[in-house]
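Why this split exists: single-chain examples teach little about how molecules sit against one another. For that reason, every record in the complexes split bundles all components of an assembly together and asks for one structure covering all of them. Below is a record exactly as it appears in the raw files.
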Amino acid sequence: MQAAEGGGVVRERGVAVADPLLDARDLVKHYGGVEALRGASFTAYAGEVVSLIGDNGAGKSTLVKCLSGVERPDSGTVAFDGRPVELDSPVAARALGIETVFQDLAVAPDLDPAANLFLGRELRKPGVLGWLGVLDKKEMRRRAIGSFDDLGVTLQSIDVPIGSLSGGQRQSVAVARSVVWASKLVFMDEPTAALGVVQRERVLDVIRRVRDQGMAVVLISHNMPEVLAVSDRVEVLRLGKRVARFRAADTTVEELVGAMTGALSQEDAG
Amino acid sequence: MTPQRKSLAKRLVGTNTLWIALVLLLLIAVFGALRPDAVLTVFTLQTTLVETSVLLVLAVGMTFVIITSGIDLSVGSVLVFSGVTSAMTMNSLNGGDATNAGWGVVVVGLLVALASGAAWGLLNGLLIAKAKIPPLIVTLGSFGAALGAGQLISNGSNVSGVPNVLSNNLGTGTTFGVPNLVILAAVVTALGALLLGTTRFGRHTYAIGSNEEAARRVGIGVTRHLMAVYLLAGVLAGLAGFMAMAYFRVASVTGHDTDNLNAIAGVVLGGTSLFGGAGSIVGTIFGVFIPAVLRKGFVIVGVNVYWQPIAVAIVLVAAVWFDQSRRKARDRS
């Protein structure tokens, strides 16, 4: 984890005033005849939590998939750190310092928590053994325990397949994996959906802590009080387009719901 | 709170491998008690090991394939094809009959067998990983095609003329009383176990079988990896063909129709899940020896040997049922 570049981010009453870290414009994505994104735009600043909200089918998950390299948009542009980028694979997104907690978690249920934390980034032993591809399981396990400790993730056991853990613990591992590796931006698609009250608070704490380290956190949630509690800004998607933007401190649940359902719209949001 | 590490014993109890090892030991104990004079002898041990060596090499490759949640029905046919191409190459290099050929010819024969296996493995891998055709269908196709191709090349008959130096050394030779064929199978199995259990290649094999989409999203080259796994299974089938040829002194085009099913049964008996993501080479060793010990034991004890497949079937179905209910219990949480 590293601090935000430039440090020129001013967060006054939860609003970032600086060049955007991520600036996606006019993204279009079709699945067959279905238009999931119809010119959607989205902006995120370093050092802020921005929530992306919208009714079911508004295109939130599709937008996150396009911005984390899982799907490629049919058209539109994405700028990251002021430069235009091609997010054509998850690897490309990760190389930019972008990590994602997917709604379906994307963990390997048969592997243990440490193996999942290091999935695709396995540590190898030094020397000839490492060159042969031999894993340094001890070191990965040690670091994983340290990371889980830091993030307040409590697991019954570190040696069992994570499929045998509770839904909340599985989710905690997925969240931990993203924040451990991210250096600039974390997408979290419903990170608290399967969690109990205590674990939910812990994840929100983690989100704030990551934000305070200068990263951008994009939160997708259906829970409006949670959105207002943790976000600095809120962007609203409806029918595949951005229809409104709010400062969390200046808005209400009623206003957010109004924007989501189309009762309220802002001319300049798209 | 730091999560507690379970003791080794506790972790072992939770695995299928332990139970299947106990079943194997129990079988040996029962047959041993019934006929100690015939069962617990060096000769019986040696012949059981030798007869199982070729199948064990096939099963090592099959373990990787099944852990990716795939299947390879083609291994027995690839074994036949590789044996035929290898034997015929050696014959043609030595004027039509390689019986008295030297080591140079044998080495070429080995390379041809491995390359033949590799070619079929690569074809399987391409169709499965790139063209995304289900492994069951792809390898059902190559199961027929590889056998057909082998029979076309050999005109449907066994190929004789296997070099004596090969048969006398690899086929029937021993080192310090241990058959060379068994040593080769043991080395292959040990390397397979290390590759699967300790390396990144092995870790990715498990990850792909456990959740292919998750593996893809964390940047694992799933397509490439699957191709490598089927390639490995093919190369090992080629090696198995070479070993079988050395042992029987002939490249046989018959008698391997059920090698694929025997290998799969061994792997699954050994606790590797047909759903992918879980399994081990150590388990496969136990799994492969259970049918072998049953067959040997029935012969020695005087039970009609046709009971063997029935007994294997019962253990196999029980093993899969056990795996399934364990998974259900786990995923319910």
